[in-house]
Amino acid sequence: MDNVSFTKMPHATPVYLGIDCGATTSKIGGVDARGAIISTTLRQRPTRGEDGPVAIIEGWMEGADAFLRDEGLSWDDVGGVGLAIPGPYQDYGILGPQPNLPRSLDGWHFLDDLTASVAKAARREITVVTANDGQLAGLGEAKRVQAITPGGVLMLVPGSGLGCSYVHADGTLLEGDHRAAAILCHMPAPHVKLGLPPFQCGCGRDWGCFEAYTSLSGLPQLLSHFLPQFPNHSLASPASPAKEKALALRELAQQGDPLALAIFDLQARAMGAAVATGCMAYDPTHIVIGGGLIDPEATTPAFRQRYLEGIKHSTAEYVWVEIDKLHFHEASLGELSQATGAALLALGR
Ligand SMILES: [Zn+2]
Question: What three-state secondary structure class fits 184?
Fold first, then answer.
């Protein structure tokens, strides 16, 4: 995200910090006492998951210290800390077995460890809260769209996986009794309607999860399916690995490459079916779409329009309510959405 220049106003204290633990990098953000974003500068550092819990916490705390320093704040100004971290969990604040972080972290009491480190840094007790990273992205974006029109917010973020969340009309997050609500990503996609077999998913389910048809994780399978229709295509050469080819597709789509466009058109149709499924479960007013395919720095306006129109068209085909009742938005916080959501969760508590 670009650094946005603006006149520095004193922050309304207390402030709330948000830490977003990603598989490779962790990001730090924050909101003030009114819920306004303190800075749009993307601050991130390596998560160092393979080095174990002590190294991970050290990185988060260094990031938080640097954030406070850069913004002319101190731990005295902090009212709470939120942590976005991928699930599933053994229990609240205890990591379960999941694909995005090393398996050696299974069973880690991350909330206790972070709470202790925060208390040490601040020399007093500060409330630390946590939720699923995909859910918290929605909380970060909901505040903006709910300020335009009241209503519930369904957010879908196709990236390496498919992040999903639902925020109630009152601005609170639907977390679920086991903090596993809105896992649309691992619900079955109508793969027969999409003309595709049930794809493999990283979660191990074999019913054709939405994630496999909408995110980077399933691109190699989509490519294998579509390549035979384009035998002379540069990606048909077996030389480069499947993952490398998958990453080249977004760039090719911007240049109008027919294979790449066919693949992303299919992803848009699958996304629309996921949106319709989510709408039938939660009946929202707002639909927010995030992820790399609507990133203004990596995609052309024409491509983004084609992708979003594809999603809307497919949603209309399956959804229960009239499509005109749904407000579609592009996500605005980019890579800061989860850290911002984590900070807002801390503010809400
Ligand atoms: Zn799955």
Answer: helix
